[in-house]
Amino acid sequence: MNNNYLIPANSKKSQLILGFFTPLDLILFGSGCGLTLLLLMLIRNADVGIMILILMPAVITGFLVTPVLYYHNVLQFIVNVVNYVVSTKRYYWRGWCVRYESEDE
After folding, report:
1. What is the maximal distance between C-alpha atoms in the chain?
2. Taking the C-alpha atoms of 49, 50, 56 and 57 in order, what is their torsion angle to the nearest 10 degrees?
3. Which of 1, 9, 82, 86 is the most exposed place for a label (fewest CB within 10 A)?
4. What confidence tens digit (pLDDT) does each residue in 33-65 have?
5. CA proximity to 58, closest of 32, 24, 34, 35
6. Which is nearest to 86 in space by CA: 95, 94, 98, 78?
């Protein structure tokens, strides 16, 4: 036998919580719902506009973790954009040259 294995396409799905969510998804959604519950307990007698604003953390995080096609790729793209925005913008690179003009490049 040559140890060639055929792995089913849905094998990674069994590693997810309830077959859909990663631990980061549940933490994100839990924090959005927790913030919404905290705001609901703190703010009383709110009109419709304020109530919509109070419910926004749970709604936004709910949409972020909803299992749609390629949502993990979109989540990773959002993480990459955030990392790019908050990180240093100085990149060190040296090309393929025979010699360099100065050593501090």
Report:
1. 73
2. 170
3. 1
4. 999 999 999 988 888 888 999 999 999 998 888
5. 32
6. 78
